[in-house]
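ARCHIVE CARD
Drawer: 12
Card no.: 0347
Subject: one protein chain, sequence and derived structure
Cross-reference: see card 0346
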Amino acid sequence: MYLKALEIQGFKSFPDKTVLTFGEAVTAIVGPNGSGKSNISDAIRWVMGEQSTRALRGGKMEDVIFGGTARRKQVGFAEVSLVLDNTGHIFPHLEESEVMVTRRYYRSGESEYYINRRSVRLKDVNELFMDTGLGREGYSIIGQGKIDEILSVKSGDRREIFEEAAGISRYRHRKEDAERRLERTEENLTRINDKIDELELQVEPLRASAEKAKKFLILRDELRGLEISLWLEQLERVRTGAIKLSADYENAVRQKGEAQAEVERLYAAAEELSARMHQKEVDAEGIRFTMMGRQADANECENAIAVLRANIQNDLENADRLRRELEAQEGRTGSVDQQIAQRKARLEEIGTELAALGARLEGFRQESDDLSRSAGTLAGEMEALRQKEAVETASAAEARALLSALAAAAQEVMDRDEAVRQELAAGEERLTAAESERDGAQKELEQAREDRDSLQNIISGYAMRLENRNRKAQEAEEQQVKLQMEENALQSRIHMLAEMEKLYEGYSKAVKLVMGESGRGQLKGILGPVAGLVRVESAYTVAIETALGAAMQNIVVDREEDGKAAIQYLKRRDGGRCTFLPLNAVRPAEFRDTAVAREPGFVGMGSELVEFDRRYEAVVSSLLGRTVVAQDMDAAIAIARKYNHRLKIVTLDGQVLNPGGSMTGGSASRTAGILSRQGELERLREQETLLRDALASAGKKLEEARREAAAAQYEMDTARAQQRRHEDDILKLEERVRHLTGQLADQQLRRDGLKEELEQLSRRAERTEEDTANARRRIEELEGSAAALRAEAEGKAKGQGELREKGESIGTRMAELSARKAALEAEEQALGQALGELEGLRADLAGDRADRVRRIEELNARSEELNGQIRDREEQLQSIRAESDAQQAEIARLNQEKLELEGQRNQADKASRDKNSELLAMEREVSVLEQKKTAAEMEEKQLLDKLWESYELTHEAARAQKVELESVARAQRRVAELKKAISALGNINLDAIEEFARVNERYTYFTDQRDDVRKAKTELEKIIAGLTGEMERIFAQQFDKINEAFQQTFQELFGGGKAALELDDPEDLLNCGIEIRVQPPGKTLKVITLLSGGEKAFVAIALYFAILKVRPTPFVVMDEIEAALDDANVERFAHYLRQVCDHTQFIVITHRRGTMEESDVLYGVTMQEQGVSRILTIDLGSMEKELEIQ
């Protein structure tokens, strides 16, 4: 295998596509400085995966892209391809005979890698070249940097080359990868343990909460079953009671109807008795009216008897008078005329009085007839009024019965209205509550949906936060790892520098021996080398190191005797030479040219720019007291010229102007660095402190980031659990809204039905009220009419009484007048007779006595006749009185019957009142039963509502969950116990069950993961141990081979001498430093640090050739590694290069003629256009053949 071609485009100074083809032997690349030769080695290094911009001689990776010139624009990418021959299958996993590796880099920072035009990763490229000697860590590209690594005073820096040469780089990478994985595993284990510790704090409380929640669910389920069963039992009892109430209600309604009919019947019977009483009254009144007429007849008879008796009395008186006249006829003759005159006057008075009495009597008779007619009319009217009153009273009784019925109906309507209104009010409240509950449920549903949507946004935010926090944690972890690596590197560097200080690395052998012996207490008064006793700021380090030179390794002692003892020790040990500075003998230097401090570019005196213990002031003054430190060479020259070159002047970059005018300068001496190391050690320790602070801060940030990530994860998990609960709540709320909507529709239908019934009741109440008002008005009218009729009848009766009294008075008066008239008529008749008699007497004064006697006899006969008429009249009067007594008895009988009827009516009224009270009691009972029925319906509905509201169960669904109860009382006691037990549990977190399951699952997951990680850790430790053992075995074998080859190569190149590789710690093969010890021909054995620059370079070249002998690489790129060699050694190098080119292809970048002469092909790199490199090819082998032919 060898490098067949190199294609470059856009890389550094090669903007155009440039192809270099290589032969299998030696190819030289030559050209002036700055032409771009080294860019070719950089291109090869870069395409093989180099990531260090410093190794590529740049500041940033973008610097590898052609940046443009005054005439050319910059390009957008750099691309380099290596074409390798693989006929020997050095890459066994690639079957192709030719392998092309390409790397492309864009200004945007993107990198692309290809193997045989297939896109791959950088890791794939690194693994492709691993253990082949190629690659960025291999030894196939040898430049001044590699030489410096070998020549470095730090033996540990040489390990990479030897490891690559030993072929253990792959193992080291695998080991480092395993160690990184182990570190990550340990970090993961720590993190998992932290998680487990964190979860352990949650698991037990959650376990207790979950157990309490589970106990609550068990108690709640038992309570649910018992409550549902008790409510169903109660519902059955309520429904059974409701059936009985319905039967009782219907029976009470039926009995109420019967009582209503009985009340109406009793009212009718009472009205009938009232009518019969009224009829008796009418009959009695008729009899009384008849009695009044008979009483008038009786009065007339009595008057007639009185008149007849008056006539009889008058006749008796006339007879007596006639007798007396007869007796005294003779004595009274003279007075006859007087008596006749008296009688005529009397007759005239009687005539006048009789006319007046007749007129009066006729008036009374006319008035009596009128009264009789009026009494008859009044009796008829009274009968008609009593009949009308009876009709009106009966109608009023019927109206009262109707009014009672209407009152009962109105009461029933009112009770029903009140019940309906109560039910409606309760229904309205339930409807309002249901609407409110439905609206609340709807709002809860909407809120739940909003919360779910909001929670989704929150979850999205949490996801972004979790991603950001995970990224932040990852960045913090990477930062911590980076800082840890920096700390490890820093600690390694500090440890190395401290060890170097401790071992006096960089000091001469003599210094090491003296200081070692002093450390063991064998030499007294040894204070230390000068470099260890002073401190210099980094800005002055180079200047002070240059000014001190070898004096840095001078050892300061207390007295000359101490120095002498140390010198004797060195002589005994053949340890070399060393300068000692006794404090009691060294005197400070005097510097008189103090004016130099005012010169431009003056920095300070050397002794003033270092820090030291005051006891060493004389030593420091003697060494640096006359050394001037200047800013730069120009300032130094100016100062030297001004002071006639009598001063030693050192510039800050290490250039020296010696007294007398000589100048020393160039690059810094390789022996320098002791003071820098001390400064670096102090600086590194300060950096270590800062780095530890930064690492602690990074650890806190990482811990904080992990806590934040864990909190974000917990928030995410909590939000997702809450989202699941929201989804469950939404489903429940949707079902609840549907149920409440249906329940609301049922309640609205019931409310509408109740409103319609209430309207019907209202219309019925209005009709009942109207009928009641009409009935009352009718009763009032009938009662008023009856009262009016009664009052009119009473008025008629009173008028009839007045007529009767007036008739009696008129009868009495007529009787009196009749008697008076009869008396006057009798008197008139008597007077007329007497007058006739007197006239006759006067005529017949002496008339015939026989006429008087006859007249007396006639008077006596008429008196007898009148007595007969009186007897007839008395008999008639007796008959009228007997008839009046009979009628009076009939009236008494009628009154008695009326009283009896009144008693019956009173009994009927009492019975009707009692029945009406019974009816009212029945109506109240009906109302109570109706209320109980309504209450039972309400209780039933409340139980059904309770079933739904408590457990969202319908009656049928609840019956499916009913459990058999041994005893209701026992179940009720158990319910009380369950409620008490649930209350005793306190606050219940039902989410704890799910949370415990989730946390416990995480806990189990992390414990399982911990076991897996521990197992993985054990396996990684085994792998690391196996790799370490294999690496030690391989490294030991290969190191011995390289050591042997190095001795051989050294002798071949140097023409003799000795060379060896020594391990600093053979017990630690994989970490110890490697020391190179050589003895050039004719010289003593030395460490590499004591050789000259050319010798060091030649030793390094010998070592590289030794490595190539043991582990040849397909090709080697050497970038001016022979620059430090003289011409003779260059020829040796070139000849040896030719000898070993059979196994390795060499591409040499050189300025040296000897190397060019041994090359087969020369590539010349020119820069005809500023900033753009071009290639010229010269095939020396072909030219030689042509020259030989010619």
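Annotation on reverse: Residues 42 and 987 are 74 Å apart (CA to CA). The mean pLDDT is 78.
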